[in-house]
Amino acid sequence: MLIKERIWTKDFIVVCLSNFFVSLNFYILATAFPLYVKDILHGNQQQMGLAITIYVLGVVLIRPFSGRWVDRFGKKKMAVIGMVIFLVASICYFGTKGIVLFLAIRFIHGMSYAIASTAANTVASSLIPDSRQGEGMGYFSNKGFFIEKRGDKMIRDRGNKKWVSLMLPEHVKMLREYDASYNKIPKPSLDEQKYEQFNEIVSEAMEMNNILEFS
Predict the structure, then answer these.
(1) Cβ atoms within 10 A of the Cβ of 151, count?
(2) Angle formed by the axes of helices 75-92 and 10-39, to 10°?
(3) Residues 131 and 5: beta-carbon distance below 8 Å
(4) Dist. CA 124–CA 121, nearest whole Å
(5) Is the predicted pLDDT of residue 153 greater than 70, yes or no?
(6) What does the alpha-carbon distance between residue 183 and residue 165 come to, in Å, rounded to a whole number?
(7) Spatial CB neighbours of 123, under 8 Å, sequence gap ≥ 6
(8) Using CA atoms, how far apart are residues 210 and 202, in angstroms rounded to an integer?
(9) How far is the C-alpha of 60 from the C-alpha of 77, rounded, in Å?
(10) pLDDT single digits (tens) 48-99
């Protein structure tokens, strides 16, 4: 009887959870930061877009080098370095006042994501038994698929309370205000002429005993 080698070791679970929360961090901030730039930093539409674009740019520029650094300095060392920089960058958003400093942190944050995710994938692959590589990487990749689907839903569900426990209070307030203003139906404005027409219709209906329909 063949005994399968274990996939779900302690180290593998730690790597999966670490990568899970890194990806979750991206989608939470992608949901809130455009509004943060607009309402707190008083940025324009272009700067709201840059809040996402500059992050992705950091990822794209560093990704080719991150693989070389993993080979040169070691996968575990680079995973730790990437995660630490990622965490520090996340904390540095607190109290940021200027848009330039904010975008600089976003760029560094994107760079750290590229390093952390590349190293985490390499570490995960090394922890999976050779006989179960495909199965193990399938489990590891499923985490990313779940986050992407939940993340897309979070972006579509801006302002809904099901996600507020994962966000800062000021982000929750901004998202609710945005949702309220987006779904607000403006009241129709009536001038004197329209009021007179309306009164004539009502008076005629009362006199002729007609049924009024409002739409």
Answers:
(1) 18
(2) 30
(3) yes
(4) 5
(5) no
(6) 23
(7) 11, 15, 75, 76, 79
(8) 9
(9) 21
(10) 888 888 998 999 999 889 989 998 999 889 999 999 999 999 888 887 888 9
